[in-house]
Amino acid sequence: MIATQLNRNIGLDLIRASAILMVLISHGRTFLPEFPYRDYLGIFGFLGVELFFVLSGFLLGSILFKEFAVKSFSFATLKHFWIRRWFRTFPLYFIFLLLNIFVLQYFFGQQEWNWNYFLFLQNFVTPHPALMGEAWSLSVEEWFYISFPLVLFGLLAFFKDKKQGFLFISVSYVLIFTALRIYVSLEPTLDWDSGVRKIVTLRLDSIGYGVLIAYFNLTYKEATKKYHNKIFLFGFISIIITIILFFYFKSTSLNTFFARAFLFSMASFGFALIILKVTNFHTQHKLLINIVTKISLYSYSAYLLHLSVIIPLFKSFAIHKEIPILTFIVYILTVFSISSYIYIYILKSLL
């Protein structure tokens, strides 16, 4: 989820900015006036996180393909990759974790926590606890960043053609965790959200789709450029079908086998195809570039900040029910204002 100022790509920034805005709208929808189907805005949370997952996989896959499939690699390569990743993500995560534990628990009566949060194990195989609700997706990302490069390191040496080996390992990784989710989804009482969506071991394949599309982007660059419009259209149709199915199941029950087993894969597949087109997006509109870039840079801070800090704070004042539109606007502005300071004075110094 994290972005830096180096090697900026306006298309990738646009994807990241879109993802965080969808998440903010979803979680902040209670600050909007009541209207029919307002709760259906929750789909933005689902789509926003899925987009984050695929984007993370795309960026990770691009790095790992160059480091492992193109260059010669050693354990030092893996070690350097992990250190660089963790140095960018861990400090801010632990700051907000401690803030949730020692401040929000005291003022807002948050539920009990456990030490698993420090190892990203709080939702490894069980539902995510109530404290720091946004941390579930960070656990999924961190375990992918640990497991997938480790699998590559352990198995890629057995392949004579490293590029083909990269593809085989990536596809196998995605299929294994997809199959695991399909198998677990056979349990009829399993909850779509807490029982599947937010469980680390059932969601690792979503990031894998981003790795796969990175492979095709780097290996078949000319072909992907030639057919990027058709690929984008196919991905867009896939997302539309996913949305239609989500609303259908939402009106009946999301706790069905199909929704649990396949809805996530459909979203990941669609977003992976869309990313190929958007990465080639270009514009000379300086204001648009500036806004999109800043939202992208502040997205990681905003993600950690909004759900466990800003929203509980705003809900503690009754005024949010009296002037909902203004509250929603102030909520968005507050998240990005504070996120900008966090980025400038904390994150930027670590990048």
TrEMBL record:
Pfam families given in the database record: Acyl_transf_3 (PF01757)
Domain of life of the source: Bacteria
GO terms, biological process: polysaccharide biosynthetic process
Sample GO molecular function, one term: acyltransferase activity, transferring groups other than amino-acyl groups
Protein name per its UniProtKB record: Acyltransferase family protein
GO cellular component assignments: membrane
Every Acyltransferase domain range: 10-343
Transmembrane stretches, start-end: 12-28, 40-65, 86-108, 143-159, 166-184, 199-219, 231-251, 257-276, 297-319, 325-346
Keywords attached to this entry: Acyltransferase, Membrane, Transferase, Transmembrane, Transmembrane helix
UniProt signal peptide: none
